[in-house]
Design brief:
The protein is of the alpha/beta class and 350 residues long. The protein is 55% helix and 10% strand. The protein has 13 helices and 7 strands. A 7-stranded parallel beta sheet has the order 3-2-1-4-5-6-7, with helices on both faces. Helix 3 packs across helix 11, helix 5 runs parallel beside helix 6 and helix 8 runs antiparallel to helix 10. The radius of gyration is 25 Å and the shape is globular. The relative contact order is 0.11.
Length: 350
Amino acid sequence: MSTWRYILSLQMSPQNLSLSDSLHIAVLASILSPIIYWIIRDRCRVRNLNGEHVFITGCDTGLGNSLAKWLDKKGFCVIAACATEKGSQELRRCSSLSLKTVNLNLADSNSIARAVVFVTEQTAGKGLFGLVSNPEGTAPVGPTDWLRIEDFHSVLDVSLLGLIEITLKLLPLLKKAEGRVVNLINAKGLMAFVGGGYSLSKWGMEAFSDTLRIEIRHFGVKVSIVEHGFFKAEDVNSDAIEKYLLRLWNRLTPEIRDSYGEEYLVEYIKAQRSSVKRLCDYDISNVIKCMEHALIAKYPRTRYRAGWDAKFFWLFLSYAPSCLSDMLLRITLPVPAESKRPVHGVLMNV
């Protein structure tokens, strides 16, 4: 055995290495070193987080609700913002006594001010360690000329302006605790393919989060974005989407309705229903783990992508040439009855 060790040591000694072997080793080391460093750095955790306060919006159902329960079990002092009293009661019923709830309407500045006062009282001078914004309001989707300005307000007032307002008012508490800001953004919003305020709000959230991250890091506050795909939660409901499309259709003027045709509405609803069904992921823990890492990691990532569609579908389309994404939409969405463009290909449900 000792003989083999001796031969091996001779072969691997610097004197026996050729120039090409040395270059190969140097290249391999230069590639592996940053990867190993990133893995080790990514695994570092902040210690003694028991009892730290985390404020989460949109906790009635879905991702916000699941995260509130998860962090409550992990020992955080969770302050969960719910839009309804029913949502608050149900969340408190299945959580520990340390979890507190507060009613919040992100479209109402007075409601935001009351929530900020409540958070300030609960943190009792310690500051706020985490702010997780999950501003999922109503999200009407449909052709742009089916919509009115109030349809844009119903989304932007909650999902963008409301998020900005509550973040600005909580910044003093976040700076005091050198805390974290985690903004949840549906990756579907990375690509504008439907009318309405949905994509506008998501793009605006991305811009606001990036600007805030660059400016506020001087005070020890870290900002992360979690771009998640569709998850089978109560906030993804194809029936609700269908009802909203029917309401939009019924209020259209006869001229606009005739220009699209009844068949367009039927096929549009089918396309929406099919996309929700095919893209939904049933494992909500993927996005929960990303949010948890953004809160407890010593060096949180700037962006997280949770869900297969967020990583491989929406992200790809957002960077793909416009001609490619346009082609996909042409074969996915129906064509209006009075379209002036020739129709190429066939309608597909993807």
